[in-house]
Task: structure prediction
Amino acid sequence: MKKVFVTIIMMLIMVLLSVSAFSETTDDDLVDLDLDFEIEDTEKKPYSINADIEAKETIVFFDHDALLFRQKYLDGKKEDTLWQTGVDLTAEGRYQYEIIKFYGRLNSLYYYNRNEDFESEVKAEEAYLTLQPSFSLALDVGKKVYKWGKGYAFSPAAFFSRPKDIDDPDATLEGYFNLGADYIKSMDGPLKTLAVTPVVMPIGRDFNHMTGPKDELAWGSKFYFFAYDTDVDFMFLISDNINNQVGMDFSKNLNPSFEIHGEAALVKDYSQIIIDSYGKTSEQEYTALNYLLGLRYLSSQDTTWIFEYYRNGQGYTAQEYENYLTFIEKGYSQYLSNSSRTAITKSAKYAAYYNQQAAMRDYLYLKVSQKEPFDILYFVPAITCVYNMNDQSASITPQLTYSPITNLTVDLKAGLLTGKGKSEYGEKVSDAKITFSVKYYF
Amino acid sequence: MRWDMFKGYILKGGKMKKIFLVVVLGFFSAAAAFALDGNEILKQVDRNLNPESFEMYRKLINIEPDGTKKEFVMFSVKKGKDKIASVFISPASEKGRSTLRIGENMWLYIPNVGKPIRITSLQSVTGGIFNNSDIMRVDYSAEYNCEKIETTDSGYTLYLKARMKNVAYETVTMFIDSEKLLPKKIECYAASGMLIKNLYFKKIKDFGNGIVRPAIIETSSPLNKGYKSYIVFAKVKKRQLVDEIFSLNYMHKIEGLQ
Result:
């Protein structure tokens, strides 16, 4: 483990030094400029196409002693690391004809695991038609992402959206097929804007690949209010398959450099699946309260702090999570003693509940980023920490992002997991991951 | 002293007392007139820079000490004194990003993120010397009150203080061409009194329909020595806009307004 940390730190220092060297200036004088600048491409076109391609190299450092490693690779692995080379291509296009607009975004991912196989995945993340008869009203039909909520890393009130990746909260998500509308009304007085966003989402085998007691139309709406310099949303979701949910969020700037936000959701009749340390399963039903409180602060030195506390009412307690890991531990002992895979296989069936991100109750999220230190333009170092308050385990991610030339971004990220035995981050498949990526937009 | 007693005292008083009173009243009247003039001049400068409701294209150019350039092109619409919405047209890495400002409130919409997030006037969505306040500029008269005006051979100098708490610059000194009533230079100061930035207004251009204004704003900052930034204006023209455009729910559609 020490070796891994040293390697990561050395790589970060090398990149930082190379970036500094690259940006060192030798001439203090500004170039003379012809002030006859012109702006090209200001003519409106009915269509536009954009794309970005990202080449990525990832090194995963396995933790052979971790219980989730043993659950996934029961027979073990010879390798200490997994090298993965990937290419991610995203293309988006839009076309507008009078009041009808089309938007589509296609993502294709190709990657090669040096020790495993070549794999690919192509999906339309979004593809929808918009009918906009007026500035106040729009109707959308197709596959669309509705990102509700004000949380940065967590979004308990994003009822019609797939969960965010905590490791990359800004990443694009795949939408669901749905029918939605957007009505905006601006007013004079304290309430400046009111907006209503109703959504109807078909659920079934043929739509959105969600199964439940029956095929149905889930529906809900978001109500947005802008008053007294504060954003406030109220939202709900009605569904037999997904639990009925009601939520709210808010966001406000307290001063030029300080923003606060919050988000809460009640999930009615949430059914939690629990497996104990002997492999006995049970189900408990309750109304779960999920919420977060967060802030964003910009210091006078251009350091941005994003902090969130997240309460996951649908998560497991420290004891419940430890029981799950204890069952895996027993299953592994069983496998060693009599080659029986029964217990481990059973535990793997519950991985979708227990191994997901933020599976427990209380989390702290902190991201600190420094804009353009050492006078290096377009260079942003950052560090992110996700801390599990229930078992004191954590994920720490230093990151360097640099955009040396227009449309090119270079990124180096190291994810380090730390925690005691039978803790969430202490028992993950890997204990470190380094990702180096180059992204080009065109 | 009661008013009738005061009136009687003045009416019955000596000549010297009357002269004193006239001088005092005259002084206050002149001071009030000067303050009014400063704010009226500021309003006129705002209207000369752009109509109250209009659209425009802007190119932002950041230049590093070694001459390296980075350019951004934005399309913007503004309504009233304090509403402005913009969308990046290029480069490809920024395309579709939009910003909205209503008074002291600012938001940024990034297509990948898929929802607007609140940002502050001191941050910069483009990097470089320009901060969000420079890019999402509303009327100066909406943000600042003229506290003092000086007349010089080359024009007026307005000393402005922020009306609101959430502004990027606590005080601003504006040097104005008294004939054209357009700014020549603006000095931006922090609350501490430190000079943060200089804005130079250059190349006055006729954009048509009576809009004659500087086409280029050059920026330098003592905090970023050797770096310079420019804003180039194009196609500035009046446009009637509905209020609903200036809302969070409309941010991802601003590109369609072109």
